[in-house]
Every structure is written in structure tokens, then in C-alpha cells.
Design brief:
With about 120 residues, this protein is mostly helical. The protein is built from 5 helices and 2 strands, in the order αβααβαα.
Amino acid sequence: MSKEPKEKKLRLISRETGDFTPKAEAAFEEIFKRFDADSDGVLNEKELDDFAIACNGEPFDANSKAELRNAFDTDEKEQLTLKGFFEMYHTQSSAEPSESWKDLNKLGYDSQLNLAKK
């Protein structure tokens, strides 16, 4: 019973710069735009819930939403901006890259950050 070797995952954050790699940044931007249903450049309450449900099976609770709003960039209505979305994933990817990979995989990305064709 042999297992296939696991394909090595691309790095999400560059060792040299500490920034997202170009492919990781492109993937996270695509995900943000996918859930920004009204294309206004922010994730409103429903869009944020839709994102959380797609990744975790349930919306963020009120405490988690408050933490997101306090920790990451939002607009004047406290809606998560693209910059805030990047900040959120940068924090998670630095601390627990496996959690970011779980989200990426659930949202259709493979270990090389290619989006599966639908």
C-alpha cells in the first residue's frame, strides 16, 4: 500500500521580502474579488459571511468579526478592504500556513496555486 508523494506546496510568503509571493497575492486577490459580489472593493457583512461559510462551513461569529475589524484595514463602514483581506491572510500565513492552505484548497487552488478549471 504505497502512498503517492505529496506535492510540495509553493511558498505563500517570500523569505527574502516577507511579502506574499506574486502567485499567492494573485490567488488571494482573486478570492477577495470572487466574494465581493457587488464589486465595491470591500467585503460587506453578507460577503464576509459567504467567504467564511465557503472556507469554514459557517459564518464568523460576532467576536471574530469584531477582531477582524479591529485588526485589519476597513473602510468607514467597517467593511473589510482588499488591503485588510491581504493583512488577514498575511497574519494567518505567517503563523499557520496550513490554515491558509486549507482555505486555498477549499476555494479551488492546488499546491502550485493554480485555480482548478470548473
